[in-house]
Amino acid sequence: MLMLEKRPSPSRFWNWATPVLAVVLTMLAGGLMFALLGKSPTEAIRTIFWDPLFGEFAWYFRGQLLVKAGPLILIAVGLSLGFRAGIWNIGAEGQYIMGAIFGAAAGLALYPADSRLIFPLMVVAGAFGGWLWAMIPAILRTRFRTNEILVSLLLVYVAQSILASMALGALRNPDGGGFPGSRNLSQWASSANPELIAGTGMHWGVVAAMAAVIAAHVLLQRHILGFHIRLAGQAPRAARFAGVSPGRLVLLCMGISGGLAGLAGMFEVTGPAGQIQIDFASGYGFTAIIVAFLGRLNPVGILLAGLLMALTYVGGDNAATNLGLPAASIQAFQGMLLFFLLALDLLSNYRIRLTRKEAA
Amino acid sequence: MDRRTLLAGAASGLALSLAGRTALAQAKEKVKVGFVFVGPIGDGGWTFQHNEGRLAVEKEYGDRVETIYQESVPEGSDAERVLTQMVLAGCDIIFTTSFGYMDATNAVAAKFPNVKFEHCTGFKRDHANVATYNARFYEGRAVCGTIAGMMTKSNKIGYIGSYPIPEVVQGINASFIHAKKVNPDVTISVVWAYTWFDPAKEADAAKALIEQGVDVILAHTDSTAPLAEAAKTPGVIGFGQASDMANYKPSPRVSSIIDNWAPYYVKRVGMVLDGTWASTDAWEGIAGGEVQVGEITDAVPAEVKAKAMEIHDAIAAGTYHPFTGPLNRQDGSAWLAEGQVASDGDLLGMNFYVEGISGEIPK
Q1: B155 and B131: one domain?
Q2: How far does chain B reach from its first CA to its final CA, in angstroms?
Q3: What's the domain count of chain B?
Q4: Domain A40-324 belongs to what topology?
Q5: Same domain? B110 vs B153
Q6: CATH code of residue B338
Q7: Is position B8 within any domain?
Q8: Nearest 5°: CA angle at B208, between B203 and B214?
Q9: A53, A61 Cβ separation under 8 angstroms
Q10: At what angle do helices A58-84 and A246-270 cross, to 10 degrees?
Q11: Is the residue at B358 inside a domain?
Q12: Chain B neighbors of A317, CB-CB under 8 A
């Protein structure tokens, strides 16, 4: 009979082995699904995981991986700080949207001026927008002890409504022929966030994501704030004795994650997306939660997890087009990855033991 | 490989793929056709009909065409990648079938001048290799609006709008104008779903309308959900939208507006095959066969059917335009004088309700 026995402390080995094992199991189960759909499983898996990296058109797809991974990593790094300290910002999607709106609005207010200062101003406005949106659940929690999970999540829907109203009203392109959506920011030199080196996909958002990974790594390893964050998560009582103010920590963690999510939104709207549009929000804020956990709340892990997640999207689209796979099968495939990861997480905290049934 | 050689590789790869195409600019033996869909083919409506058009292309040209498609492509930054990916897969012509792909279509078209792009329901043709096409759905709305006006017992008809864009506003106005013509007491309530395809939201919108006392529902979204919702309440009727939605016959679906893209797709792919393709803006309606009105069922009295067909036939013959004056704007200001017909320019930028509709277009 199989028994689960709690480990005295989480297994370091399984902590890092489970993501790898989850990917392998996803390939097996996904391959089975593709086979049932009448497609070659090896070809499907190859199209998803291999072709974007090493296939004929890898020169294009590698850059697209960075474009897709950039915002995920930037948001996930911010979220991971709070998650480590037991502060659950689930509303990064809303902060991402508000960052894009604030950033775009700051730029469009000066349209069509030609100045190198506009883009930096938009960056600041974007980070501010995300920070501001995160401060609502943060202050409500510190002042009134509301639950930041619910408040931040529900504010996503508020942000989506504001987004629709902006695309139809205040930020609508006056030359847009009656269509919703702002001016295309990526086509206006002062606000554009173009590829820094043509063909690489590297834009300022990707640079910011890399910088955030390094900064978070240093913060967690070397800085007293990082120590406080880790302590608050692992031993809240001890943290209080060590002089960590829980309220201050909430404001800091929510603020950092909101600001980074806002930045991600701002870089997206000025680059790959181009305009404030009713459905500008593409779920990065929610996917980033998965990326944060897939990366074990560790900055370097998040970097790898973000790239892996981007690979399943870019490769998944590639397979959908070239192999004629239905969109739902690709979503199911991505779902499997998360399912296996969560299921296998059990192994880091428990060990499986085989026991004989004992006589009563 | 260091970054420099990687980039050189990227640049030469791009150049190669472009050069490979230039050599074949004239008539072609075989073309590859790409379709970008906003929803799943199984929506039973908008995307389903575009896919029917794709199948018609395959049937018409057999071995001379290969088609690929991708469903549920978000109308944001992903669209550009999917389009590029289709170009890399060797497509000669790509149809993007939702208005939100407008900027992405033009951006990718700029990079690949030898691939043809066709954007559905947009107006931007920034490059010589971009064409746009749409159908005069409002003509079908005039027919459905007539049926709606005669059939409603509560004098309340409802309209589920997707996005407040000119095409949808045309549909609302055309429906209302023709309902009002046959029933001066009719009012119209509009609910905006802000989505093309989301059966849950579409069903909620229909439910909200029914709760307000609406007994005829028109929808401008892509799924069959509004009809499924209407079926739950006796006495409520609706129309097939984009596709015939014949499963809901004879009621709640009493008629339908069918988008028939097949003739256009067959024609345009044929032009790529024989090398005569050029950037155009196509906007056909009932007369051209792009918009069809589905069978009017026996759930509708004969005189209603006769009246609806009278409008249909007049539009088909070109003797009647659904937007014929006198018509005023919502605020009471004059729009079209007696006998004056709306210009296409007016229709393509339509951002106002006609007189008699209450509520505001979201701003």
Answers
A1: no
A2: 52
A3: 2
A4: ABC transporter involved in vitamin B12 uptake, BtuC (1.10.3470)
A5: no
A6: 3.40.50.2300
A7: no
A8: 105
A9: yes
A10: 160
A11: no
A12: 70, 73, 78, 81-82, 85
Amino acid letter for position A12:
R
Asked if A133 contacts A75 with a C-beta cutoff of 8 angstroms, the reply is no
Residues B112 and B148 placed together within one structural domain of the fold: no
B4 CB-contact burial (10 Å; exposed 0-12 / middle 13-18 / buried 19+): exposed
- Rounded-to-integer distance, Cα A68 and Cα A84, Å: 25
Cis peptide before A112 (omega within 30 of 0): yes
Q: How far apart are CA B195 and CA B186, in angstroms?
A: 27
Task: Find the domain containing B95 and state its range.
Answer: 27-136+261-284
Residues B251 and B105 both lie in one domain: no
Looking at the complex, does the CB of residue B6 fall below 8 Å from at least one CB of chain A? yes
Q: What is the mean pLDDT of each run of 10 residues along chain B (363 residues)?
A: 43 46 65 95 91 96 95 88 94 94 93 95 92 95 96 96 91 96 96 90 94 95 92 93 92 93 96 94 92 94 95 95 94 93 90 92 82
Preferred mutation among B2, B81, B84 to probe A, highest tally of A CBs within 10 A: B81
Cα separation, A249 vs B267, whole angstroms: 64
Domain segments of chain A as ranges = 40-324
Asked whether this complex has an ipTM greater than 0.95, the answer is no
Q: Where are the alpha helices (DSSP H) in chain A?
A: 12-36, 41-45, 51-54, 58-84, 92-108, 118-144, 148-168, 204-222, 224-234, 236-241, 246-270, 284-294, 299-323, 327-344, 346-349
Q: How far is CA B62 from the centre of its chain?
A: 27
Same-domain pairing of B170 and B315:
yes
Pair A167, A179: CB distance under 8 Å: no
- Candidate from B14, B41, B349 with C-beta closest to A178: B349
Q: Is A280 on the interface with B (CB under 8 A)?
A: yes
Tokens of A182: 């702002």
